[in-house]
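[Amino acid chain]
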Amino acid sequence: MSRETILDMADRRVDLIGSLGDSSGKAEGQFQRRGVDPAFRPQAFTYHPESDTYTCPAGKVLVHHGKEKRPGVIQHQYRAVAAECAACLFKAKCCPQNAEGRMVVRAEEAPAVVAFRAKMETVEGKEIYRQRGAVAEFPNAWIKAKIGLRQFHVRGLLKVTLEALWVCLTYNIQQWIRLRWRNPAALQTA
């Protein structure tokens, strides 16, 4: 699941149900490796929309430095003046390995991505997503483990479609055998 997929499905008017991963754990690990104190993580910086700047916990101003456009998100970058960071009393806690000045990124997600996140936070969205395990996870795991289909063996949309149909038919027959023939009670009631 990616922002690009969400945008594509929104364009096609498909009601997508899925999980867009949260990358905050990855970011926290990076801050720990760099030696950034928890009191100087991005959430401790204050954003000022009227001036489009951030203020760090030490009172220094970070100005808009640039932006990077990616599918479904624009990442705005804010940077402090390198000389101010170098002279700051909190440099060892804030940006110990950075000689260019502290930088903070603010993500501006596309409206379709914001709507998708809001939908998946609802009780109804979570309930529908919870059904995925029984509906999709077991068949996919079974097909990979029992049939060994981890990638298609043919090329071309028609051939791949036929291979997928054969795999699905095989799975359904196996399940029918398991549920119908291996259950003696089911045979007696038939």
